[in-house]
């Protein structure tokens, strides 16, 4: 069966306006969506056929993704998709909780009428699609975009470009684990109530509640993956 990712690059618009940006975007999406699986070797000849790009363009994209911790460089052996692990997920989750708690606290302190209006609008857009997708186990690309926009709206008034840059990198890196969570969970997760509670706490100026809610929200996704893919050590010790 031919690879469904194969495309004629002459007949499509490039994401980001150039072939290099397009290849970077498509590689990132294929890694995050687990189309390219954790630990998979990334062979240049295969990638060249799939993405229609030169070796230099592919190497540039893979080096960029390596800096984002989505690709592992293997010295002279080339590249592979970064593996997933219990330790990485726990470390990433802890880092996200620390950064998100600080960003949302700053955003609530500095938020103005425009911020509150934008947050409410972002929530309603997300809430509508969550109502439409109720019962689905795998979240759509549109949901992912609106979900990202809502969480960005929560922290939009943090007032720190550096914190926001760190936050964005961690959020993107966690997207692969969020996708895995949707793939392994047995029942749909009703996120709308979680998002509404965070929005209401933020609009009410309740920093402590908003911080606790965002921490629980992040850790719940991690717990789904941990339970499905990384059983507790005591359960595996005797196997």
Q: How many strand units?
A: 3
Report the structural category. mainly alpha
Helix content: 55-70%
* Poorly predicted ranges: 1-13, 234-239
Q: How many strands, which pairing sense, and closed or not: the largest β-sheet?
A: 3 strands, antiparallel
Order of H and E elements: HEHHEEHHHHHHH
Mean pLDDT equals: 85
Number of H/I helices:
10
* Residues in β-strands, percent: under 5%
Shape descriptor: globular
User: Gap between N and C termini, in Å?
Assistant: 38 Å
- The Rg value, from CA coordinates, equals 19 Å
Question: Which terms would index this structure?
Answer:
three-stranded antiparallel beta sheet, 239 residues, mainly alpha, 66% helix, disordered C terminus
What's the structural blueprint in terms of helices and strands?
Elements (H helix, E strand, L loop, with lengths): L18 H14 L8 E2 L1 H8 L3 H13 L3 E3 L5 E3 L4 H25 L2 H20 L8 H14 L6 H24 L7 H12 L3 H23 L3 H4 L3
Antiparallel strand pairs: 1-3, 2-3
Helix pairs in contact: 1-3, 4-7, 4-9, 5-6, 5-8, 7-9, 8-9
Please describe what this structure looks like.
The chain is mostly helical and 239 residues long. Helices cover 66% and strands 3% of the residues. The chain has helices at residues 19-32, 44-51, 55-67, 86-110, 113-132, 141-154, 161-184, 192-203, 207-229, 233-236, and strands at residues 41-42, 71-73, 79-81. The protein has a 3-stranded antiparallel beta sheet. A hairpin with a 5-residue loop joins strand 2 (71-73) and strand 3 (79-81).
């Amino acid at each position: 069966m031919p690879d469904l990712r194969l495309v004629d690059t002459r007949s499509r618009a490039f994401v980001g306006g150039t072939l290099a940006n397009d290849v970077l975007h498509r590689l990132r999406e294929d890694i995050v969506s687990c189309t390219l699986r954790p630990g998979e070797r990334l062979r240049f000849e295969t990638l060249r056929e799939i993405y229609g790009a030169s070796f230099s363009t592919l190497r540039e994209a893979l080096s960029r993704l390596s800096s984002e911790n989505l690709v592992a460089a293997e010295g002279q052996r080339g590249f592979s998709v970064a593996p997933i692990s219990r330790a990485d997920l726990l470390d990433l989750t802890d880092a996200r909780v620390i950064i998100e708690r600080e960003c949302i606290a700053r955003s609530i302190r500095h938020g103005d009428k425009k911020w509150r209006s934008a947050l409410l609008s972002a929530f309603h857009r997300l809430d509508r699609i969550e109502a439409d997708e109720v019962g689905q186990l795998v979240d759509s690309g549109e949901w992912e975009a609106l979900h990202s926009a809502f969480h960005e709206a929560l922290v939009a008034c943090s007032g720190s470009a550096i914190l926001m840059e760190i936050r964005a990198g961690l959020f993107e890196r966690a997207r692969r684990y969020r996708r895995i969570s949707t793939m392994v969970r047995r029942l749909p997760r009703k996120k709308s109530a979680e998002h509404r509670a965070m929005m209401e706490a933020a609009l009410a100026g309740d920093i402590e509640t908003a911080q606790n809610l965002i921490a629980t929200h992040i850790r719940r996704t991690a717990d789904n993956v941990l339970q499905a893919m990384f059983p507790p050590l005591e359960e595996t010790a005797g196997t």
